[in-house]
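REQUEST
  id: r-88c1
  op: predict_structure
  target: Hemolysin, lipoprotein
  payload:
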Amino acid sequence: MYRSKLYVLFLIPIFMLNGCISSLWTGATLVYDRHNVYKKFYDYQLAVQANHLLFQDRMLKQEGCYLDLAVFKGDILLAGHLPSKKLRHLAHMRLKSLTGYREIFFQVAVYSGQANDLIDTWLTTKIRSQILADADIDPNAFKIITIDKIVYIMGDVRPKQADQVLSIARNTEGVVRVVKLMRYLNLSETPAG
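RESPONSE
  id: r-88c1
  status: 200
  body:
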């Protein structure tokens, strides 16, 4: 009994220290990668503005409305489903009134149904964990969003990595469809000049 309490007292500081180390790592990353931080902040601002425009009243919060908004590297994805074409048009018009984005991907279906939040989160987690486990893939280049078992992949990516991520998503059990919303970076092997 005494020994098990001693183990618990020993393990608690180790887990707390682990949190501190990851915070230090994040702080160091912020100092050396300011450009990326500014992009993330800009994406956050875009997301706040888009949310405000979309949900300024109760119209898109009614029963049967399920929308998910994602912003990544200036691109905006609005996906989900709405119960009528009128509401779909309203959401599209509100989102198009936004400025400062690179591109809008409007993936909203018309039907009334329940959200699959738990299943969608589980699918995203399975895909992200496989991406993180692969040393050949830069996980920061991709944003994975799953709505209604449809996986949306966003990012500015290298073709080889994109193919690997698409293969992972397509071969994940439970995925109905994979939608590519990526820009491909083609880096030449020879220097210019």
